[in-house]
Specification:
The protein has 10 helices and 9 strands. It has 289 residues and is α/β, with parallel strands linked by helices. The chain has 2 domains: 170 residues, no CATH class; 96 residues, Alpha-Beta Complex (Type Iii Antifreeze Protein Isoform Hplc 12). The two termini are 28 Å apart.
């Protein structure tokens, strides 16, 4: 049995998502509350923070440069079926409370998209997670207003913390005692995390790994990522650039020579063959088969 865990944001979001659906509402945004988002952070800029909390600079860099939250929200997308509104997500900045942000989204557009995963920067409570949801039921609307959740059409639900080390044992108990999976994909990829140049990069450069100096990851709908041949961030480490790239340029399979075949590449090929069989005719070009 494979599952995400309580205590980190994706698992906490999924707990909240299930709770809101259990109330009879329709979630339209599954979101993550961030205090900082800066694509250009690197292990040097994050070294002091890492030392304070006994973490590696690379791990802390992923927190700051958007890669970690992109991977987390891709997990949520693949567990709920929700996509992203645009490449990189919307990522609104706001200094107030998350409840006040329900007026900042186009509800009809969210409904058209079938719901989205997203993040926000700055609001309270931070760090936390949120779900914005709707209902058409008059009685439900009546009692949500009675419960001080406002008049809609979007209703805000949030969890103000994620207590990683304390909540993981709860996940183990849920899985072992109740066979209750906290988070797992519901089917094929809905959202992927694709690779961007963190700085100007020259042909011949061998890319470093997650939380490094060379790249950062951003969410993209999987169908678009495959149509545009975009390089998943998990395959970028060790790849050699075939051409110069400008900062913030998205990297494709055609831009790189992948390192020697490894387990990650083999798993990616298996996934692609299973969920995107139509790409097999372009297999040589995109280096997936």
């Amino acid at each position: 049995m494979l599952s995400g865990a309580d205590g980190d944001q994706p698992g906490v979001i999924m707990n909240l998502f299930r709770f809101v659906k259990g109330l009879g509402l329709t979630p339209l945004i599954c979101g993550n509350i961030k205090g900082l988002q800066d694509f250009y952070r690197n292990p040097t800029t994050q070294a002091s923070f890492a030392a304070r909390w006994q973490l590696t600079p690379e791990m802390v860099t992923q927190f700051a440069d958007g890669t970690k939250i992109s991977i987390e929200q891709a997990c949520v997308a693949n567990a709920t079926g929700m996509g992203v509104a645009k490449r990189g997500m919307i990522g609104l900045n706001y200094a107030g409370h998350i409840d006040d942000m329900v007026t900042m989204y186009d509800v009809e557009e969210l409904k058209r998209q079938g719901g989205i995963v997203d993040y926000v920067v700055g609001p309270k409570p931070g760090p936390g997670v949120f779900v914005f949801a709707i209902t058409d039921d008059p009685k439900t609307k009546h009692y949500l207003e009675y419960g001080k959740l406002g008049t809609g059409p979007l209703y805000s639900f949030y969890t103000p913390y994620h207590l990683i080390y304390f909540e993981i044992p709860i996940s183990i108990a849920r899985m072992v005692l109740f066979q209750d999976i906290i988070m797992a994909p519901i089917g094929g990829p809905v959202v992927e995390v694709v690779t961007f140049a963190k700085t100007d990069l020259k042909a011949g450069k061998t890319l470093d790994g997650l939380g490094g100096y060379d790249t950062y990851g951003q969410c993209e709908n999987a169908s678009t990522a495959r149509q545009e041949n975009l390089l998943p961030v998990g395959l970028a480490e060790g790849a050699i650039l075939k051409r110069d790239l400008a900062r913030d340029e998205v990297i494709t399979f055609a831009d790189v020579e992948l390192p020697a075949d490894n387990l990650i590449q083999r798993l990616y090929r298996e996934q692609t063959q299973l969920f995107f069989p139509e790409l097999q005719e372009n297999a040589v070009e995109v280096k997936i088969l």
